[in-house]
C-alpha cells in the first residue's frame, strides 16, 4: 500500500476522514436543497401554480448544464485524485487544466445551439400555451449565462478532491443564501417575474465562484493551471469515467420531462403543478444523495490510486449505512407529514393538493433504495468500473423508469405513474446485489479490477 503520512487521507482513521468529507458535503447539499425548496415556495406563493409549473418545465436545461460540468468535472477530478494518490502531482495538475478547458468549450457550444432553438425546445420540454411564457423566460436566461453554473460546479468538484471539502461547502452555502435573499428581493420588493428569478440564480452562482477562487491563495492548494496540449488519452479517460455522472443528471431531465408530459396528458395542468411540488422535494433528496456521493468519490478515487483496498472497504461500509438510514427516514417523513409538505408551497386548488398527496406517499418509497444505488454508482465510478456505474445510472433513471411510466398507468390506472421510480430503484438494487454476489463479494475481493 502506498501512503504519504503527511496526508490526512493516509494518516487519519477512515471514520474520521469520511466524516470530514461527509459532513461538509451533506451540509452544503442540504443548504442548496433548502435553496431549491424556498425558491419553489416563493415562486408558487408569489406568481402562482402556472408559473411554478413553467419553471419546473424549464428546469431540465439547468440540469443539463450541471450534467455537462459533472461529466467532465467528476471524470477529471477522479483522475486527479487517483494521480494524487499515486503521488504524481504534476500529472494531476495537467488533468485539472485539461478538464477546465474542456468544460468551457462544451458549455459554449451546447448553450449556443440550445438558445437558437429555445422556442421549439420549450414546447418539447412539455410546455403548453399556459406555461410557455414562464418556461421560455427561465430558459432564455439559463442559456445565456449558464456557463457560470458549469464553472462553479467544476471548480467545487476539483477543490473537494484537492482536500478542501469545507470550502466547497462554503461556496454552496453562499450560493444558496444569496439566491434566497436575491430572489426574495426580486419577487416581493421589485415584484418582477420568472426571468429575473433565473437571473438571481445565476448571480448567486457567480458569488459561489468567487468563494471557490480563494482556494488558489491557500497553502493547501495543489491545483495549478499548466501550459498543455490536447491529450486524446486524458480526454477519453475523463469522458469515460465522468459519463455516469452526466447520465445521472441527464436522467433527472428525462425523469422531469417524462413526468411533465405524462401528467399533462393524464391530469392536465393540475397534474403538472402537483408534480412541480413533488419535484422540488425530490430535489432535496437528490442533493442529500449527491452529497453522499461527493463524500465517497474523492476518498475512494484517492485510495484506489494509492492501492489501499482496506480503506476503500471501510469507507463503503460507512457510506452504505448512512445511505440506507437516510432513505428510510425520508420515506417515513413522506408518509407522516405529507399534507404539511404540500401546504408550504402555496394555497393551491384542492385538485392539485389531492394529486400531490397521493404522489408524495407513493413516490417516497423510492428513497428506501435510491441512496444505496447512488453510493454504489459512485463507488464503481471511482474505481473505474465504468460499465457497472453506467448500468446503474442508465437503468434506474432512464430504462426501467421509462418502461414503468409507460406501462403502469395502462394496467393499474393513473396514480400508479408515481410508482415508476420506486420500482425502477428496487429493480436496479437487485441487479447490484446479483452483480456483487457473482463477483464473490464487494469487500472481500483480493484485487480491484479496472474494467
TrEMBL record:
It is found in: Cell membrane. Belongs to the multi antimicrobial extrusion (MATE) (TC 2.A.66.1) family. MepA subfamily. One of its GO terms (biological process) is response to antibiotic. InterPro entries: MATE_fam, MATE_MepA-like, MATE_MepA_subfamily, MdtK-like. It comes from Gracilibacillus halotolerans. GO terms for cellular component: plasma membrane. It is a multi-pass membrane protein. Keywords: Antibiotic resistance, Cell membrane, Membrane, Transmembrane, Transmembrane helix, Transport. One of its GO terms (molecular function) is antiporter activity. The chain crosses the membrane at residues 21-38, 50-74, 95-117, 137-155, 167-186, 198-218, 239-260, 280-306, 318-338, 358-376, 388-411, 417-436. The lineage of its organism: Bacteria, Bacillati, Bacillota, Bacilli, Bacillales. This is Multidrug export protein MepA.
Amino acid at each position: 500500500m502506498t501512503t504519504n503520512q503527511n496526508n490526512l487521507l493516509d494518516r487519519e482513521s477512515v471514520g474520521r476522514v469520511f466524516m470530514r468529507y461527509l459532513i461538509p458535503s451533506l451540509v452544503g447539499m442540504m443548504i442548496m436543497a433548502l435553496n431549491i425548496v424556498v425558491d419553489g415556495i416563493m415562486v408558487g406563493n408569489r406568481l402562482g401554480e402556472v408559473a411554478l409549473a413553467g419553471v419546473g418545465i424549464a428546469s431540465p436545461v439547468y440540469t443539463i448544464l450541471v450534467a455537462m460540468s459533472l461529466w467532465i468535472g467528476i471524470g477529471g477530478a477522479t483522475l486527479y485524485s487517483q494521480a494524487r494518490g499515486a503521488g504524481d502531482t504534476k500529472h494531476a495538475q495537467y488533468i485539472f487544466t485539461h478538464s477546465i478547458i474542456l468544460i468551457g468549450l462544451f458549455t459554449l457550444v451546447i448553450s449556443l445551439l440550445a438558445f437558437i432553438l429555445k422556442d421549439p425546445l420549450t414546447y418539447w420540454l412539455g410546455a403548453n400555451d399556459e406555461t410557455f411564457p414562464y418556461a421560455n423566460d427561465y430558459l432564455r436566461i439559463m442559456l445565456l449565462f449558464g456557463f457560470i453554473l458549469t464553472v462553479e460546479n467544476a471548480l467545487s468538484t476539483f477543490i473537494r478532491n484537492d482536500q478542501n471539502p469545507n470550502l466547497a461547502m462554503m461556496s454552496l452555502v453562499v450560493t444558496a443564501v444569496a439566491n434566497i435573499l436575491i430572489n426574495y428581493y426580486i419577487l416581493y420588493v421589485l415584484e418582477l417575474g420568472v426571468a429575473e428569478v433565473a437571473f438571481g440564480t445565476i448571480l448567486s452562482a457567480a458569488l459561489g465562484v468567487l468563494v471557490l477562487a480563494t482556494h488558489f491563495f491557500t497553502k493547501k492548494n495543489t491545483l495549478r493551471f499548466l501550459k498543455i496540449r490536447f491529450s486524446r488519452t486524458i480526454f477519453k479517460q475523463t469522458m469515460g469515467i465522468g459519463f455516469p455522472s452526466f447520465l445521472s443528471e441527464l436522467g433527472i431531465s428525462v425523469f422531469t420531462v417524462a413526468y411533465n408530459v405524462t401528467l399533462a396528458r393524464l391530469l392536465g395542468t393540475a397534474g403538472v403543478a402537483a408534480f412541480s411540488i413533488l419535484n422540488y422535494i425530490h430535489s432535496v433528496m437528490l442533493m442529500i444523495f449527491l452529497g453522499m456521493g461527493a463524500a465517497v468519490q474523492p476518498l475512494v478515487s484517492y485510495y484506489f490510486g494509492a492501492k489501499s483496498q482496506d480503506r476503500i472497504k471501510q469507507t463503503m461500509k460507512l457510506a452504505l449505512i448512512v445511505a440506507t438510514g437516510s432513505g428510510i427516514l425520508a420515506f417515513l417523513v413522506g408518509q407522516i407529514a405529507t399534507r404539511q409538505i404540500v401546504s408550504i408551497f402555496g394555497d393551491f386548488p384542492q385538485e392539485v393538493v389531492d394529486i400531490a398527496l397521493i404522489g408524495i406517499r407513493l413516490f417516497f418509497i423510492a428513497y428506501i433504495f435510491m441512496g444505496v444505488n447512488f453510493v454504489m454508482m459512485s463507488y464503481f465510478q471511482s474505481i473505474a468500473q465504468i460499465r457497472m456505474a453506467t448500468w446503474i445510472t442508465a437503468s434506474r433513471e432512464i430504462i426501467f423508469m421509462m418502461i414503468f411510466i409507460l406501462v403502469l398507468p395502462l394496467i393499474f390506472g393513473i396514480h400508479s405513474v408515481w410508482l415508476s421510480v420506486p420500482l425502477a430503484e428496487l429493480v436496479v438494487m437487485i441487479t447490484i446485489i446479483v452483480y456483487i454476489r457473482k463477483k464473490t463479494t464487494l469487500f472481500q475481493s483480493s484485487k480491484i479490477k479496472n474494467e
